[in-house]
Amino acid sequence: MRRIMDGSSPNRLEKWFVLLCQGCLVLFLLIFLSFLLLLLIMGLPRLDWEFIFGFQSRFPDQSGALSALTGTCELVLLVLLFACPIGIAAAFFIQEYGENSSSMALRMISRFFDLLLTSMEGLPSVVYGFLGLALFVNILSMGRSLLAAALTLASMAVPIIISNSRNALRSVSREKQETALCLGATKWQAFKAGVLPEALPGLVTGTCLAMGRVAGEAAPLLMVGAFSYMTFVPDRLLSPFAALPVDIYNWTVQAGGGEHANGSAAILLLIPILVFFNAISVIWRRHWEKQTAEDKAK
Fold this sequence. Notes:
75% helix; mainly alpha
C-alpha cells in the first residue's frame, strides 16, 4: 500500500480503469462508424441535386427534401430569434438581480424560477409538443403553422439557453464588475463592461447547443402538425410546414426500400446542420480564448 501511495509502483486498479475507459471509447467509435457507414451505403446513392432541390412525390425514387430542408432552416432561424434574447435576458436578470438582490421577494422568485427551469430542462420533448398543441395551435388559433412550431421549439430552447448562460455568467471573475460599481457605475454598466465580454463565448456556446438540439427534434413537430407531404416551400409565418426530422420519421417507418433510402439521405442532410452549430460553438470559443491570451500577453 505504501508503494502504491508514494507512486513507486503502478496502480493496478488505475490501469484497469484506464483500459476500461479506452474500451468504452473504442466501442462507441465502432458503433458510431458502423452507423455512419450504414447511412452512407443506404443514403448516398439518393443524395443528389434532384433530391435536395426536389419536392415529395408518390414515387420514392422521385421524392425530394426541399420543403423539409427549407422548413428546418426557417424553424431554426425563428427559434434563434425568439429564444436567444429571452433566454439570455432571463439568465442575466436571475443571476444579477435575483440571486444577489437585497430584497427577500426577488430572491424567493429567483429560486422558484431556478427550480422551475431545472424541471423544464429535463422534460421530454413530447411534453412541449402537447404545450404547443394546446396553447399555440388551439388557444391562440395559429393552426398547424410554421409560427406555432417555432414558438413550441423556442419554449423548449429557452430553459437550455438560460441554464448555459447562467453557467457562463457564474464562471466570470467579478473583480471588474465590483470595481466599476465602486466607481459609481450602474449594475447594467458594470455588467456590460466587466462580465459580458468574458461570458460571451459561453453565451454563444449555450445558444448553439440549444439550436442544435431543437433542429433534430421530431416529437414536438409531430404534435403541432408538421406535414409529411408538401410540394411547396413555406413562405409565411402561418403557412403549413415540413421538417427534416419529421420526414426522416415518416420515411423510416414506411416499409418500402426506397423510403428507407430517402430517410437515410435526409439524415445525411440533417447531420451537417447539427455539426454546423457545434462547430460554431467550438470555433468561437477557441478564437475567443486565443484573443484573450493575446490581450493578456500584451
